[in-house]
Automatic annotation (TrEMBL):
Subcellular location: Endoplasmic reticulum; Golgi apparatus, cis-Golgi network
Lineage, top ranks: Eukaryota, Fungi, Dikarya, Ascomycota, Saccharomycotina
Main location: endoplasmic reticulum
Record-given protein name: Trafficking protein particle complex subunit
UniProt KW Signal keyword: no
SMART domains: Sybindin (SM01399)
Assigned protein family: Belongs to the TRAPP small subunits family. BET5 subfamily.
InterPro entries: Longin-like_dom_sf (IPR011012), TRAPPC (IPR007233)
Segments of this protein annotated with the region Disordered: 25-58
GO CC annotation terms, alphabetical: endoplasmic reticulum; Golgi apparatus; TRAPP complex
Subunit annotation: Part of the multisubunit transport protein particle (TRAPP) complex.
Biased composition (Low complexity): 30-43
Polar residues bias: start-end ranges: 44-55
Length: 189
């Protein structure tokens, strides 16, 4: 399942986003530990970390127990999601690049948790393309490259009527690109 597609410019602004299906909820959902792994193109493999979650209940005489494991933010905000995704990508890419050494320019490929997988592709002009999928998906880095070469360059860059710079207040609004991305992603499903 593919959840969403995001494009960030070199100034860290989200210039395009499209969602196909509801993303998994954030926050702890069980007493099990959650594993996260970073995938890269280099021989150091994947870094794994474990983050434990716990449930707490208060029990005062006469007051029923309260489950505090419910995530405090129930309503998702697309702008906040964009900031979180970019922050995660920025931090993980920098970590992977430092671990990879001098040849680490293309070291960050994906990030996987037990709820989703983040696929990453960075263009020569520092556009960052992110695809959020279910964790069972194999790498979609080639798909992101295809979207860049065959859709973004063809319908956005080569479009004489398209602005040269995009921003969060002036995002990509191109019907050919939008329809092309939609068709391409649905073809992957």
């Amino acid at each position: 399942m593919i959840y969403s597609f995001w494009i960030f410019d070199r100034h860290s602004e989200c210039i395009y986003t499209k969602e196909w299906s509801e993303q998994p909820t954030y926050g702890p959902t069980s007493n099990h530990s959650h594993n996260a792994s970073i995938s890269s193109n280099h021989s150091f493999g994947s870094a794994q970390g474990s983050v434990g979650s716990s449930r707490r209940a208060s029990r005062i005489e006469g007051i029923p127990s309260v489950n505090t494991s419910i995530h405090p933010v129930a309503k998702r905000n697309r702008e906040d999601d964009a900031k979180l995704i970019f922050g995660a990508v920025f931090s993980l890419r920098n970590m992977a690049t430092k671990w990879a050494g001098e040849n680490g320019t293309d070291s960050f490929v994906s990030f996987k948790t037990n709820k989703y997988k983040l696929h990453y592709f960075e263009t020569p002009t520092n556009l960052k393309m992110v695809l959020l999928t279910d964790p069972s998906r194999p790498s979609l880095r080639d798909a992101l490259h295809d979207i860049y070469v065959n859709l973004f360059v063809e319908y956005v860059i080569k479009n004489a009527l398209s602005p040269q710079e995009f921003s969060s207040t002036n995002p990509i609004d191109n019907d050919l690109f939008n329809n092309g991305v939609d068709t391409y992603i649905k073809g992957l499903a």
